[in-house]
Amino acid sequence: MEIEKIIKNGNTALGIELGSTRIKAVLIGEDHISIASGSHEWENRYENDIWTYTLDDIWSGIQACYQNLKIDVENKYGVKLTQIGSIGFSAMMHGYMAFDKKDTLLVPFRTWRNTSTGEAADQLTREFSFNIPQRWSIAHLYQAILNKEEHVTNIDYLTTLAGYVHWKLTGEKVLGVGDASGMFPIDSKNCDYNADMLAKFDEIVGPCAYSWKLTDILPKVLPAGASAGYLTREGAKLLDVSGDLAAGIPVCPSEGDAGTGMIATNSVAVRTGNVSAGTSVFAMIVMEHALKEVHTQIDVVTTPQGAPVAMVHCNNCTSDLNAWVNLFEEFAESYGISVDRNQLFSVLYNKALEGDRDCGGLVAYNYISGEPITGFKEGIPLFARKAEDNFNLANFMRTHLYSSLATLKIGLDILFKEEDISVDKMYGHGGLFKTKGVGQKIMAAAMNTPVFVMETAGEGGAWGIAILACYMKNKETEESLATYLENKVFCGDQGKKIIPDPEDVKGFDLFMIKYMNGLKIERAAVDSLRA
């Protein structure tokens, strides 16, 4: 009855996040606890050498997800969802969505997964003395300029997926600073785009004589807690096709999945960090000092309130691992055995813990797509072993778990060993951690750092952006996001901790020697099997 009253009175917050394979919606109450959820499965397309989602994919997915949430609310509480206290939208960071003055998408959405901007990323990194990864929106824009793509002349607005959804539902061309930091470098002191780099970019492209300057086409930057507009009447109908949802709901600044992951794991304070491991994997550490050198393996982004963060991002994590699990499921079904997928993952993941610490000499590369950290524009999943290696199920599974984190370890070793970046608490979340203890133990070995996993980590980014919507509406004057999270959301909860096993650490290091030496095998596979 209490929850029913909360929903009817609109004392709730809704978060919707568009992830790589799933769109999820989470409705929370004033205590920040999830009371209902909805989801929709989707998948990117590889069309004309581009990883993309269509606009129809985006809106049909969001609408299906929201309707799923509405059904969950009605089934649980007998209430039709018409009022919501505040809303937030988040999505995969980076990528390229360019629109003209008529709000027409000029080219298909180019997602973070594309690795076709190497020339632009390299040139901008040199010009800015600041690492610009291939995924970043500015790299996509500059590559389009280098390619002399005709559409660039007609750009009126450039944004991310989350920024696009926010714009269409509120009419506001704004973006949370965390997501904006994956478009263009941010000046944390001013919580805005770096002015010197903006001027440098305009100087570089000056000879092209475009009618726009970069600041003309980028979203306005907003920190967490700021008002980012209201759900319009058209936006309400676009979100809820039944027409039940009221307009005028306040909306917080949209964020990227990296920022919402930080929220979901209470890791926005200095010397805290988190690892998000799913389709891709990335680690984020809130820095207490700037990096000494520019490293192409490390991005510098920000928290949702603009604090500098070292980010190691890898395009590939669990997709290849999941494909092998699917193969085992198909094998079981061939015997007429119906297998619960969660149990299958649990059995296979736990089997990995029985394997040799160095995987018995086996090695694998999980490159579904390119992997910039190791210099691959394209990838081919690959498993290799010598005849005398200890080839069994436990080592096979352990190898693929190690492989899912290997490129991440390359970047983190730079942070810890070369840049002296320190972290007191590292939190894990995402699909890799769903089987309790296993992914967490492997991650601790890869990082040689204690890893915490909270119960709330399973709620994911949709819960994180719902928290940001709550923070915008309910924060006290001058109350920082870190304080709000610590005192009102997590209330001192640290989660379950696993410390690294020295033998696991040693074994992972031995695996990495073979992994690095074997990259030439992956290179030969890509070169030989390229279509």
From TrEMBL:
Domain Carbohydrate kinase FGGY C-terminal: 274-471
Keyword field contains Disulfide bond: no
The name this protein goes by in its record: Sugar (Pentulose or hexulose) kinase
Span of domain Carbohydrate kinase FGGY N-terminal: 13-260
Pfam family, one: FGGY_N
UniProt record, GO biological process: carbohydrate metabolic process
Entry's Gene Ontology molecular function annotations: kinase activity
Highest taxon of source: Bacteria
Family to which this protein belongs: Belongs to the FGGY kinase family.
Keywords: Kinase, Transferase
CDD domains (UniProt xref): ASKHA_NBD_FGGY_BaXK-like
Originating organism: [Clostridium] fimetarium
Claim: tRNA-binding is one of the keywords in the record: no
